[in-house]
């Protein structure tokens, strides 16, 4: 199976979905490690409970940004990933990381990019007043949520939604989308053609 390293900063509901999927050998991918910038990320506990290796690389432990970038790349390199999955990792990946893993990093974002990039995709969509938002799986490039899009799913905004209720419904769609497309990328191969990310011959 393809080797996945998951980067996360939060609760890890997307990680949980990947851990459930990888139990099936036909899935074709396995989470071999979880790397976090935060020692208190709930996703680390999910990983430990599943017997998956965890590493924390805290920015505060490094004198400057390039040192942290280097340490993050080193932490991931140890596990020789075929794909890196950013699933609620709330930091920008720097040039050293992209130079090494570029084209093999998928990110999940809780909005229909290019609308509402950044750290508050759900809040910003709600504030704008859109009636439909959703989630996006894309290949990471040097910009903030600007990389070639692999897949998207739409989620309707309800009249009485707040950020939490909307994010919860987006997360349901998001984990299914992420599991599907990480699996396809692992089994069929991921490539980028201009603005488009593709798997297999599709
Ligand atoms: C997910 O909705 C993910 O799309 C979002 O954080 C959540 C993490 O949930 N990521 C971003 O907003 C990145 N800009 P999880 O920890 O339960 O998987």
TrEMBL record:
<dbReference type="InterPro" id="IPR001555">
    <property type="entry name" value="GART_AS"/>
</dbReference>
<protein>
    <recommendedName>
        <fullName>Phosphoribosylglycinamide formyltransferase</fullName>
        <ecNumber>2.1.2.2</ecNumber>
    </recommendedName>
</protein>
<keyword id="KW-0808">Transferase</keyword>
<dbReference type="GO" id="GO:0006189">
    <property type="term" value="P:'de novo' IMP biosynthetic process"/>
</dbReference>
<feature type="site" description="Raises pKa of active site His">
    <location>
        <position position="145"/>
    </location>
</feature>
<comment type="similarity">
    <text>Belongs to the GART family.</text>
</comment>
<feature type="binding site">
    <location>
        <begin position="90"/>
        <end position="93"/>
    </location>
    <ligand>
        <name>(6R)-10-formyltetrahydrofolate</name>
    </ligand>
</feature>
<feature type="binding site">
    <location>
        <begin position="12"/>
        <end position="14"/>
    </location>
    <ligand>
        <name>N(1)-(5-phospho-beta-D-ribosyl)glycinamide</name>
    </ligand>
</feature>
<comment type="function">
    <text>Catalyzes the transfer of a formyl group from 10-formyltetrahydrofolate to 5-phospho-ribosyl-glycinamide (GAR), producing 5-phospho-ribosyl-N-formylglycinamide (FGAR) and tetrahydrofolate.</text>
</comment>
<dbReference type="InterPro" id="IPR002376">
    <property type="entry name" value="Formyl_transf_N"/>
</dbReference>
<feature type="binding site">
    <location>
        <position position="65"/>
    </location>
    <ligand>
        <name>(6R)-10-formyltetrahydrofolate</name>
    </ligand>
</feature>
<feature type="domain" description="Formyl transferase N-terminal">
    <location>
        <begin position="3"/>
        <end position="180"/>
    </location>
</feature>
<dbReference type="GO" id="GO:0005829">
    <property type="term" value="C:cytosol"/>
</dbReference>
<dbReference type="InterPro" id="IPR036477">
    <property type="entry name" value="Formyl_transf_N_sf"/>
</dbReference>
<feature type="active site" description="Proton donor">
    <location>
        <position position="109"/>
    </location>
</feature>
<feature type="binding site">
    <location>
        <position position="107"/>
    </location>
    <ligand>
        <name>(6R)-10-formyltetrahydrofolate</name>
    </ligand>
</feature>
<dbReference type="Pfam" id="PF00551">
    <property type="entry name" value="Formyl_trans_N"/>
</dbReference>
<keyword id="KW-0658">Purine biosynthesis</keyword>
<comment type="pathway">
    <text>Purine metabolism; IMP biosynthesis via de novo pathway; N(2)-formyl-N(1)-(5-phospho-D-ribosyl)glycinamide from N(1)-(5-phospho-D-ribosyl)glycinamide (10-formyl THF route): step 1/1.</text>
</comment>
<dbReference type="GO" id="GO:0004644">
    <property type="term" value="F:phosphoribosylglycinamide formyltransferase activity"/>
</dbReference>
<dbReference type="InterPro" id="IPR004607">
    <property type="entry name" value="GART"/>
</dbReference>
């Amino acid at each position: 199976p393809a080797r996945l390293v998951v980067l996360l900063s939060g609760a890890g509901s997307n990680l949980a979905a990947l851990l459930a999927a990888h139990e099936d050998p036909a899935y074709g991918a396995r989470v071999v490690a979880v790397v976090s910038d935060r020692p208190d990320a709930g996703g680390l506990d999910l990983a430990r409970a599943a017997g998956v290796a965890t590493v924390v690389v805290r920015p505060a432990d490094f004198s400057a940004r390039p040192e942290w970038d280097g340490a993050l790349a080193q932490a991931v390199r140890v596990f020789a990933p075929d794909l890196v999955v950013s699933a609620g990792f709330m930091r920008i990946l720097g040039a050293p990381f992209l130079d090494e893993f570029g084209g093999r990093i998928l990110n999940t974002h809780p909005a229909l990019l290019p609308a509402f990039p950044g750290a508050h995709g759900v809040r910003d969509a709600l504030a704008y007043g859109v009636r439909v938002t959703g989630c996006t799986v894309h290949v990471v490039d040097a910009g903030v949520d600007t990389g070639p899009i692999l897949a998207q799913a739409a989620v309707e905004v309800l009249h009485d939604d707040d950020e939490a209720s909307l994010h919860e419904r987006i997360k349901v769609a998001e984990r299914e989308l992420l599991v599907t497309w990480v699996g396809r990328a692992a089994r069929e191969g991921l490539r980028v053609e201009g603005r488009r990310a593709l798997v297999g011959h599709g």
